């Protein structure tokens, strides 16, 4: 498989060598790094990527769920270029940020007030900061293996890639605790132990990076009850899950958090994050009523806001239903392929995103997930390399998602490539 990959990608190899000379590791987008180098992408349109090697790949990764409308959607391109041509970035507010804030507030009943930043990382960082300021507590509870970006607090307990993180100060590690996902008893025990000291429990309602693992019945309700009883805050990281319904996973599962972090498509493909929720909590950022600092050169950038507005316009309830249905169809059909293959492999997910796990065991948390646990070259990575060689672009952790330009033909293509890739690696995984 690796030989075949290298045969297809000589220009990517050259570009990666060039990149490594001036950037450590060549690039930060490690999720699509297939040993010994990643594929460089030149451009993309709809659901097709064109690589630097001239290959055309069907994109089932969509920049880790950011490109929910596919690539270069004409309405978004038009809105962004029109806004950018009128000047961009004034160190002054513009009307577009209010418009996008209104749109998020309308769609998401738990969000009364919202602020913009530049990434999902900044969104969760500021949500946690708000929780600490509001409660006066500084202990944070999170899920074992959950990824919420790259600021210190949330990097604690990201065990997925098995690496330690010597850049996190030890005193940060001391004020973060983790619990396994979907284990209500462990959550009750953690709240008994930490309840009075907790600023918040931060949770992605579907564990995304850890393997697209949906919540068990009642798990999120239990989290809601426990946070309320302990007088602490429930923070939903909806950076990936906001695509599940107009109001995100909180609408789909009927659980109302105090604060929510947003990212990915919220800026129409330009760097963007947002965080919001209860007005009395968000007041910590109001210079008249609170004193938590949040500023940034690119916060609420008008071009980004225009991109976000055009994206939310297109991503209405009908569009969401359509991609959720396509996702359900894909999962059903991939389940059949897995069953027929008689291999220890299964598909998890909900709505328009899903993942593949090479195990027979029920996948309920980071420990039972097979995403990111194995060393390089293991069956999971081999499988996704096989899929990539067969023309479907995915991360080597396996996350896949549907974009709005897709239809039955793209699901057919995925299922065919999936079946073929499974037989490519069958001897390794059996
Ligand atoms: N939270 C979740 C659930 C994510 O999936 C990610 C990114 N994949 C982040 C936060 C961080 O977002 P960003 O990469 O924009 O900083």
TrEMBL record:
* Organism, scientific name: Halorarum halophilum
Kindly report, in one word, the top-level EC class recorded for this enzyme.
isomerase
Q: Which reaction does it catalyse?
A: (S)-4-amino-5-oxopentanoate = 5-aminolevulinate
Lineage of the native species?
A: Archaea, Methanobacteriati, Methanobacteriota, Stenosarchaea group, Halobacteria
**Keyword annotations of the record:** Aminotransferase, Isomerase, Porphyrin biosynthesis, Pyridoxal phosphate, Transferase
Q: What is this protein called?
A: Glutamate-1-semialdehyde 2,1-aminomutase
Transmembrane parts of this sequence: none
Q: Family membership, please give it.
A: Belongs to the class-III pyridoxal-phosphate-dependent aminotransferase family. HemL subfamily.
The record's EC number reads 5.4.3.8
Q: Which cofactor does it need?
A: pyridoxal 5'-phosphate
Identify the metabolic or biological route this protein is part of.
Porphyrin-containing compound metabolism; protoporphyrin-IX biosynthesis; 5-aminolevulinate from L-glutamyl-tRNA(Glu): step 2/2
CDD domains named in the record: OAT_like (cd00610)
Protein's GO biological process: porphyrin-containing compound biosynthetic process
Record's PANTHER family? Answer: GLUTAMATE-1-SEMIALDEHYDE 2,1-AMINOMUTASE (PTHR43713), GLUTAMATE-1-SEMIALDEHYDE 2,1-AMINOMUTASE 1, CHLOROPLASTIC-RELATED (PTHR43713:SF3)
Q: Tell me the GO molecular function terms.
A: glutamate-1-semialdehyde 2,1-aminomutase activity; pyridoxal phosphate binding; transaminase activity
